[in-house]
Write a structure and sequence with these properties.
The protein is an alpha+beta fold. Helices cover about 25% and strands about 30% of the residues. α4 (about 65-80) runs antiparallel to α7.
Length: about 550
Amino acid sequence: MLRQRLAATLLFNVLLAGWVYYDARARGARKPLFAAGLTLVWGPLGLGFWASDRPLADGERRAGGAGWTMARTFAIAWTVLLPTIVALVVPDIRARSVVPGSLGGRFGVPLASSLVSLAIWLPPLATALGLGAMMRARGPAEAGRPGVAPAKPLLTQAILIAGLIVFAAAKLFAAEPAGPDRVRWQHLSSSRGELPVPGTSTQQTGALVADFDGDGISDFVLSFRQVAPALVWYRRVENGWTRHVLEPDFLTVEAGGAAFDIDGDGDLDLVFGGDWQSSDVWWWENPGRQGAIESRWTRRVVKSGGATQHHDQVFGDFLQTGRPQLAFWNQNAKAIFLATVPSDPRHAVTWDAVKIFEGAAGEPGGLYPEGMDAADVDGDSHVDLLAGNAWFKRENGTTFRPIRIAPIGGRIAAGQLVEGGPPEIAIAPGDGVGPLRWFSCDGRPDDPASWHGHDLIQGDVVHGHSLALGDIDGDGHLDIFAAEMAKWKEAAAVPDNPEARAWIFYGDGRGHFETVEFAHGMGFHEARLADLDGDGRLDVLQKPYNWNAPRVDVWLNRH
């Protein structure tokens, strides 16, 4: 809002300076440009200086001396600006009212806006009138002389006209921009104190969204490595979010994560895997509504031993048993495992898991496969697994056939981008460089030749580690959110990709997309689309990996 305030101030000064120049020329004053220049720089104070020194026309009077005239003129001009001040303050207070402890949150937007506007307007007014009263002369009023012609409009009229023009402009300044984006966003960031800071780790790995406390509003969990805590939980409250340590210990947690009611007690538990330093996958038992918010969640083991790194997990009934299984990548085994949830998960040492895939999945050279989603790809009413650059058709038992969708794999998401027929599949390069494409099927979904790619942007995406589908603008059609990382090398002091971009591709349900650049120069990693404030609209959760970390950002959809 600072730019809008500066623009309004500059416009007011320009209007007043133009009138001063016109008035000075009409009165035959010396140096009209000097008088106008002072008003342009000093605004109402410069106007007061002109009013105290200008030649008076026949019939005009100047009482109280120069000091009082300056103060009175300043007070009139400054008071005329008060509606403009209010017009610019209200949107700012409204935008920050979601921040815990903000004035708008504590007192309401109308009262908080009035208090802030008065705090801006009253001190300069009181100071000017106080100083003017101290300097007020008690002698006779100075009279005008014949031959001096005042400009029209007169001083007070000119101030009122300028004030009305600036007020109208301020209403336009304060209005949300009618830019190319279809959605009005409210950006909140821990870097400005609008959300709690995640922790002290500068390596933020995962972001998982789910309603963990059962209040009907999505919460989110962030994971870390480098230092403790390993997991923190952000709960939505009336005016923002509160942060709670879910796992206080130090663990080397990898990106990914999945939520599911593992123990069958009616609340969502969560799963994360270890990174390249760990051979473990863990699940955390939600203490439920009976447990205190600050209660530590009990950590238990899904997998222990074997190869390391477990980047991405998803739950789905891939075996068609009536109860979902956990699919997870094990990158250093170059394999996907399917783990069955034990009948008594609280007392199971580990979960039974079977390898259902081993090999490459479209990862660029030297990198690891990643990305997981679940959707009914072939329309047989059974959920299928998607991972890397393929979807996996269950043949029988635990035998799955990978059907390649794209040459390059990475982040993967399925949804009805074209209404009717099989779902379409979007793929971004994840921890690599490659195209950002969505894929449609014009034949049998289990035939790789039926899948055809469509570029969403020209050129490659650089470390496109954020990909999500959802109806962002509420028009009933799925849209695509995608974003790049800005920094990934831990030892680097500067961003690896300083021009990192984020986009929204607004879909029309027929395979056409309107591209909007959502952000530029900001590092995204594991960004999520979810309704984070319970208003029924999809918001954006974003945290970087190590760009400006520790940090978390939320964009609230005010469409």
